[in-house]
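Handout, page 2. Input:
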Amino acid sequence: MMNRIRRIATGLVLLLFLPSCFGCAPSQTVFYTNADSVSLPIIMYHSVLKDDAKWGDYCVSPETIREDLLYLKREGYQTIFVADLIAYTEGKPLPQKPVMITFDDGYYNNLTYVLPILEELEMKAVISVVGSYTEAYSETYDPNPNYAHLSYADISLMAETGRIEFQNHSYDMHRQGKRKGSARMKGESAEAYKLAFCSDAERTQQLLKDNCNITPTAYTYPFGQISSEAQAYIKELGFCASLTCYEKINIVTRDPSSLFGLGRYNRPSGLSTEAFMAKLFKDG
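Output:
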Protein backbone atom coordinates (compact mmCIF):
# COMPACT_ATOMS: atom_id res chain seq x y z
CA MET A 1 0.00 0.00 0.00
CA MET A 2 2.79 2.40 0.92
CA ASN A 3 4.56 1.73 -2.39
CA ARG A 4 1.36 2.57 -4.26
CA ILE A 5 1.02 5.83 -2.33
CA ARG A 6 4.60 6.72 -3.15
CA ARG A 7 4.02 6.05 -6.87
CA ILE A 8 0.91 8.24 -6.86
CA ALA A 9 2.78 11.01 -5.05
CA THR A 10 5.62 10.80 -7.56
CA GLY A 11 3.12 11.13 -10.39
CA LEU A 12 1.57 14.24 -8.81
CA VAL A 13 5.01 15.82 -8.45
CA LEU A 14 5.68 15.09 -12.11
CA LEU A 15 2.44 16.82 -13.13
CA LEU A 16 3.56 19.97 -11.33
CA PHE A 17 6.64 20.10 -13.55
CA LEU A 18 5.03 19.22 -16.88
CA PRO A 19 4.77 22.85 -18.10
CA SER A 20 8.49 23.48 -17.62
CA CYS A 21 9.37 20.14 -19.25
CA PHE A 22 7.33 20.93 -22.34
CA GLY A 23 9.13 24.27 -22.53
CA CYS A 24 12.61 22.68 -22.42
CA ALA A 25 14.98 23.11 -25.32
CA PRO A 26 15.42 19.88 -27.36
CA SER A 27 19.00 19.48 -26.09
CA GLN A 28 17.87 19.21 -22.47
CA THR A 29 17.35 15.85 -20.80
CA VAL A 30 13.84 14.67 -19.94
CA PHE A 31 14.01 11.93 -17.28
CA TYR A 32 11.82 9.11 -16.16
CA THR A 33 10.87 9.75 -12.55
CA ASN A 34 9.80 6.32 -11.29
CA ALA A 35 10.80 3.80 -13.95
CA ASP A 36 11.57 0.39 -12.45
CA SER A 37 13.57 -0.72 -15.50
CA VAL A 38 15.07 0.67 -18.67
CA SER A 39 16.21 -0.81 -21.99
CA LEU A 40 19.89 -0.16 -22.63
CA PRO A 41 21.64 -0.78 -25.95
CA ILE A 42 25.45 -0.81 -25.76
CA ILE A 43 27.68 -0.45 -28.82
CA MET A 44 31.20 -1.87 -28.81
CA TYR A 45 33.94 -0.25 -30.90
CA HIS A 46 37.66 -0.91 -30.91
CA SER A 47 40.22 0.78 -33.14
CA VAL A 48 39.39 3.82 -35.30
CA LEU A 49 41.50 4.61 -38.37
CA LYS A 50 41.25 6.55 -41.60
CA ASP A 51 43.10 3.83 -43.54
CA ASP A 52 40.42 1.69 -45.20
CA ALA A 53 42.91 -1.16 -45.69
CA LYS A 54 42.75 -1.73 -41.92
CA TRP A 55 38.98 -1.64 -41.49
CA GLY A 56 37.24 -4.86 -40.54
CA ASP A 57 35.33 -6.45 -37.69
CA TYR A 58 37.27 -4.45 -35.09
CA CYS A 59 38.27 -1.27 -36.84
CA VAL A 60 36.08 1.46 -38.35
CA SER A 61 36.62 4.94 -39.74
CA PRO A 62 36.13 8.21 -37.85
CA GLU A 63 33.35 8.98 -40.32
CA THR A 64 31.51 5.82 -39.28
CA ILE A 65 31.75 6.83 -35.62
CA ARG A 66 30.44 10.29 -36.39
CA GLU A 67 27.56 9.00 -38.51
CA ASP A 68 26.58 6.47 -35.82
CA LEU A 69 26.59 9.10 -33.09
CA LEU A 70 24.65 11.58 -35.23
CA TYR A 71 22.03 8.89 -35.87
CA LEU A 72 21.66 8.20 -32.15
CA LYS A 73 21.44 11.89 -31.39
CA ARG A 74 18.75 12.45 -34.03
CA GLU A 75 16.76 9.53 -32.62
CA GLY A 76 16.82 11.05 -29.15
CA TYR A 77 19.32 8.71 -27.52
CA GLN A 78 21.57 10.10 -24.82
CA THR A 79 24.94 8.60 -23.97
CA ILE A 80 25.64 7.47 -20.43
CA PHE A 81 28.51 6.18 -18.29
CA VAL A 82 28.65 3.14 -16.03
CA ALA A 83 28.51 5.68 -13.21
CA ASP A 84 25.04 6.66 -14.41
CA LEU A 85 23.90 3.03 -14.23
CA ILE A 86 25.23 2.68 -10.71
CA ALA A 87 23.42 5.88 -9.72
CA TYR A 88 20.24 4.47 -11.28
CA THR A 89 20.38 1.42 -8.99
CA GLU A 90 20.66 3.90 -6.11
CA GLY A 91 17.46 5.69 -7.11
CA LYS A 92 18.73 8.36 -9.53
CA PRO A 93 17.04 8.85 -12.93
CA LEU A 94 18.31 7.90 -16.37
CA PRO A 95 17.51 9.56 -19.70
CA GLN A 96 14.39 8.30 -21.44
CA LYS A 97 16.50 6.72 -24.19
CA PRO A 98 19.94 5.86 -22.79
CA VAL A 99 22.70 4.32 -24.88
CA MET A 100 26.26 3.41 -23.95
CA ILE A 101 29.14 3.84 -26.38
CA THR A 102 32.14 1.67 -25.50
CA PHE A 103 35.66 1.29 -26.90
CA ASP A 104 37.81 -1.69 -25.97
CA ASP A 105 41.60 -1.98 -25.57
CA GLY A 106 42.49 1.70 -25.11
CA TYR A 107 43.85 2.57 -28.56
CA TYR A 108 45.59 5.91 -28.94
CA ASN A 109 43.38 6.63 -31.95
CA ASN A 110 40.44 6.93 -29.55
CA LEU A 111 42.11 10.16 -28.46
CA THR A 112 43.08 11.21 -31.98
CA TYR A 113 39.73 10.68 -33.70
CA VAL A 114 36.99 9.84 -31.19
CA LEU A 115 37.36 12.49 -28.50
CA PRO A 116 36.97 15.43 -30.94
CA ILE A 117 33.73 13.89 -32.25
CA LEU A 118 32.39 13.39 -28.73
CA GLU A 119 33.20 17.00 -27.88
CA GLU A 120 31.61 18.28 -31.09
CA LEU A 121 28.38 16.34 -30.52
CA GLU A 122 28.39 16.75 -26.72
CA MET A 123 28.29 12.99 -26.15
CA LYS A 124 30.33 10.60 -24.04
CA ALA A 125 31.86 7.13 -24.14
CA VAL A 126 33.42 4.40 -22.03
CA ILE A 127 36.95 3.16 -22.78
CA SER A 128 38.18 -0.12 -21.28
CA VAL A 129 41.97 -0.22 -21.14
CA VAL A 130 44.39 -3.15 -20.97
CA GLY A 131 46.74 -2.29 -18.12
CA SER A 132 49.89 -3.82 -19.62
CA TYR A 133 49.38 -1.88 -22.87
CA THR A 134 48.95 1.39 -21.02
CA GLU A 135 51.95 0.67 -18.83
CA ALA A 136 54.17 -0.10 -21.83
CA TYR A 137 53.17 3.01 -23.80
CA SER A 138 53.58 5.17 -20.71
CA GLU A 139 57.17 3.97 -20.33
CA THR A 140 57.97 4.42 -24.02
CA TYR A 141 55.62 7.11 -25.32
CA ASP A 142 54.79 6.65 -29.00
CA PRO A 143 51.64 8.59 -29.96
CA ASN A 144 50.96 6.92 -33.28
CA PRO A 145 47.24 6.39 -34.01
CA ASN A 146 48.02 3.45 -36.31
CA TYR A 147 49.09 1.12 -33.51
CA ALA A 148 49.76 2.87 -30.17
CA HIS A 149 47.78 2.60 -26.95
CA LEU A 150 46.90 5.30 -24.45
CA SER A 151 49.44 6.34 -21.83
CA TYR A 152 48.61 7.40 -18.28
CA ALA A 153 48.93 11.03 -19.36
CA ASP A 154 46.51 10.46 -22.25
CA ILE A 155 44.00 8.79 -19.95
CA SER A 156 44.18 11.62 -17.42
CA LEU A 157 43.74 14.20 -20.17
CA MET A 158 40.71 12.43 -21.64
CA ALA A 159 39.08 11.84 -18.26
CA GLU A 160 39.35 15.53 -17.41
CA THR A 161 37.17 16.43 -20.40
CA GLY A 162 34.18 14.73 -18.81
CA ARG A 163 33.51 12.94 -22.10
CA ILE A 164 35.30 9.68 -21.28
CA GLU A 165 34.94 7.16 -18.48
CA PHE A 166 37.68 4.52 -18.09
CA GLN A 167 37.16 0.89 -17.13
CA ASN A 168 39.24 -2.25 -16.55
CA HIS A 169 39.93 -4.65 -19.45
CA SER A 170 42.43 -6.79 -17.47
CA TYR A 171 46.14 -6.21 -17.00
CA ASP A 172 47.61 -8.95 -19.17
CA MET A 173 44.77 -11.33 -20.02
CA HIS A 174 43.96 -9.80 -23.38
CA ARG A 175 45.44 -12.85 -25.07
CA GLN A 176 44.33 -15.97 -26.93
CA GLY A 177 46.84 -18.59 -25.87
CA LYS A 178 46.55 -21.43 -23.40
CA ARG A 179 44.26 -19.14 -21.45
CA LYS A 180 41.44 -17.62 -23.52
CA GLY A 181 41.10 -14.07 -22.30
CA SER A 182 40.39 -14.04 -18.57
CA ALA A 183 38.64 -17.42 -18.59
CA ARG A 184 39.69 -20.38 -16.49
CA MET A 185 42.14 -22.71 -18.21
CA LYS A 186 41.40 -26.38 -18.70
CA GLY A 187 42.71 -28.27 -15.69
CA GLU A 188 43.33 -25.10 -13.65
CA SER A 189 42.30 -25.40 -10.02
CA ALA A 190 39.70 -23.05 -8.61
CA GLU A 191 42.26 -21.59 -6.22
CA ALA A 192 44.84 -20.99 -8.95
CA TYR A 193 42.25 -19.41 -11.23
CA LYS A 194 40.98 -17.06 -8.54
CA LEU A 195 44.52 -15.93 -7.74
CA ALA A 196 45.37 -15.38 -11.42
CA PHE A 197 42.15 -13.54 -12.25
CA CYS A 198 42.06 -11.33 -9.17
CA SER A 199 45.74 -10.39 -9.14
CA ASP A 200 45.55 -9.47 -12.82
CA ALA A 201 42.43 -7.30 -12.43
CA GLU A 202 43.76 -5.69 -9.25
CA ARG A 203 46.97 -4.70 -11.00
CA THR A 204 45.14 -2.53 -13.53
CA GLN A 205 42.99 -1.09 -10.75
CA GLN A 206 46.10 -0.07 -8.85
CA LEU A 207 47.92 1.32 -11.89
CA LEU A 208 45.01 3.55 -12.85
CA LYS A 209 44.49 4.68 -9.28
CA ASP A 210 48.16 5.48 -8.73
CA ASN A 211 48.86 7.13 -12.08
CA CYS A 212 45.52 8.67 -13.09
CA ASN A 213 43.51 8.90 -9.85
CA ILE A 214 40.87 6.70 -11.50
CA THR A 215 39.22 3.65 -9.96
CA PRO A 216 37.30 1.65 -12.59
CA THR A 217 33.87 0.43 -11.55
CA ALA A 218 33.35 -2.13 -14.34
CA TYR A 219 35.29 -5.12 -15.60
CA THR A 220 35.25 -5.71 -19.36
CA TYR A 221 35.92 -9.36 -20.24
CA PRO A 222 38.79 -9.71 -22.76
CA PHE A 223 37.35 -11.21 -25.96
CA GLY A 224 34.15 -11.76 -24.00
CA GLN A 225 35.64 -14.99 -22.60
CA ILE A 226 33.76 -15.72 -19.38
CA SER A 227 34.07 -18.33 -16.65
CA SER A 228 31.16 -18.79 -14.28
CA GLU A 229 33.36 -18.22 -11.23
CA ALA A 230 34.56 -14.82 -12.40
CA GLN A 231 31.42 -12.85 -11.61
CA ALA A 232 31.77 -13.60 -7.90
CA TYR A 233 35.43 -12.54 -8.02
CA ILE A 234 34.52 -9.33 -9.83
CA LYS A 235 32.06 -8.45 -7.07
CA GLU A 236 34.61 -9.32 -4.39
CA LEU A 237 37.05 -6.92 -6.02
CA GLY A 238 34.51 -4.11 -5.71
CA PHE A 239 33.38 -3.81 -9.32
CA CYS A 240 29.77 -2.72 -9.77
CA ALA A 241 29.28 -3.91 -13.36
CA SER A 242 30.74 -6.11 -16.06
CA LEU A 243 30.68 -5.85 -19.86
CA THR A 244 30.51 -8.86 -22.18
CA CYS A 245 30.40 -9.46 -25.92
CA TYR A 246 26.96 -11.09 -25.96
CA GLU A 247 24.76 -9.22 -28.41
CA LYS A 248 21.57 -8.28 -26.61
CA ILE A 249 19.60 -5.25 -25.47
CA ASN A 250 20.00 -5.01 -21.72
CA ILE A 251 17.15 -4.56 -19.26
CA VAL A 252 18.61 -2.60 -16.35
CA THR A 253 16.62 -2.47 -13.12
CA ARG A 254 17.08 -0.90 -9.71
CA ASP A 255 18.69 -4.18 -8.66
CA PRO A 256 22.51 -3.72 -8.74
CA SER A 257 22.93 -7.30 -9.96
CA SER A 258 21.37 -6.28 -13.30
CA LEU A 259 24.61 -4.43 -14.13
CA PHE A 260 26.64 -7.65 -14.39
CA GLY A 261 26.95 -9.42 -17.73
CA LEU A 262 25.83 -6.45 -19.81
CA GLY A 263 25.62 -7.30 -23.50
CA ARG A 264 27.09 -5.24 -26.33
CA TYR A 265 26.82 -5.13 -30.10
CA ASN A 266 30.15 -5.13 -31.93
CA ARG A 267 30.37 -2.45 -34.62
CA PRO A 268 32.19 -3.76 -37.72
CA SER A 269 32.98 -1.84 -40.87
CA GLY A 270 31.15 -2.61 -44.10
CA LEU A 271 27.69 -1.80 -42.77
CA SER A 272 25.92 1.51 -43.19
CA THR A 273 24.82 3.27 -40.02
CA GLU A 274 21.20 2.54 -40.89
CA ALA A 275 21.87 -1.19 -41.41
CA PHE A 276 23.83 -1.50 -38.17
CA MET A 277 21.24 0.36 -36.14
CA ALA A 278 18.45 -1.77 -37.61
CA LYS A 279 20.32 -4.84 -36.32
CA LEU A 280 20.95 -3.19 -32.96
CA PHE A 281 17.38 -2.18 -32.30
CA LYS A 282 15.55 -5.15 -33.82
CA ASP A 283 14.95 -6.57 -30.36
CA GLY A 284 14.67 -3.25 -28.58
